[in-house]
Amino acid sequence: MSKRAQKAVIPAAGLGTRFLPATKALPKEMLPVVDKPAIQYVVEEVTRSGIRDTLVILGRNKNAISNHFDSVPELETNLTNKGDIEKLRRVQHSSDLADIHFVRQGEPKGLGHAVLRAKAHVGDETFAVLLGDDLIDERDTLLETMLDQNEQTGLTVVALMEVDPDHIHMYGVASVEPTDTPDVVKVTGLVEKPKKEDAPSNLAVIGRYVLTPNVFSILERTEPGKGGEIQLTDALQELAVTDGVLGVVFRGRRYDTGDRVDYIKAIVQLAIDREDLGTDLKPWLKDFAAQL
What we know:
With 292 residues, this protein is α/β, with parallel strands linked by helices. The protein has a single domain (7-258), classed as Spore Coat Polysaccharide Biosynthesis Protein SpsA, Chain A (Alpha-Beta Complex). It is built from eleven helices and 13 strands. It has a five-stranded mixed barrel with strand order 8-11-9-10-12. The protein has a two-stranded antiparallel sheet with strand order 2-3. The protein has a two-stranded antiparallel sheet with strand order 7-13. Helix 3 runs antiparallel to helix 4 and helix 8 crosses helix 9 (232-242). Keywords: Nucleotidyltransferase, Transferase. Its EC number is 2.7.7.9. It holds the Pfam family NTP_transferase. It is an enzyme of class 2 (transferase). This is UTP--glucose-1-phosphate uridylyltransferase.
């Protein structure tokens, strides 16, 4: 048994070019998904897992993210004076979620480089990494399961999901062997964004990781790979050979906000399940779909 991870890292330094011009001044992590910015869903997932210490890796012009998780006394006073307690509660919730820290990535050199920027904060501890493009439904317990596996084995754990082979080129892809635990596999190799014909499986790495601190020494000597960036996948490939890596195969509800179409789908899916929105939205959607 190893010590359960107590810290999480959320890389949020990407430029969000797929959402231009909306992301010209607004960080893509702050794009609203129904009525919360995408990154708030991720921080809420962290806190549900029991982790209270979160480090966000920022890029330039990302001050809106730190502002969102800060208190806004004048707004809170205004809502209090109006007696708008429900909105006051929602505003305060984002400020009270967790102990959130921020560090700048500097030059954007890839996900591996962003994770390496967390070294001073994380130290010699196991930690979770969550990407903001993948939102996991609050009814599912993916991160908790990954933390459990790490605690039991001491190994790095990645989240895997079966994807359409036609889309496999968009992901890091794992070659795996079964274990005695259902939906937990041993990762024997990883390749970043392979061609469909070269992919070792249809199990793609999605944006959840529980990493041992050994990853830092590997990232420090990892050369730029695919796209000229320092790829976390390359470091995980080395860990799979030397230390061992487990994969948790996720079969729950995932909302991909990484491109425009999937972002819209995520908003609709989440809104339909809301008690305050679904009742009105479902019949409208049925009528709208019937007209297509």
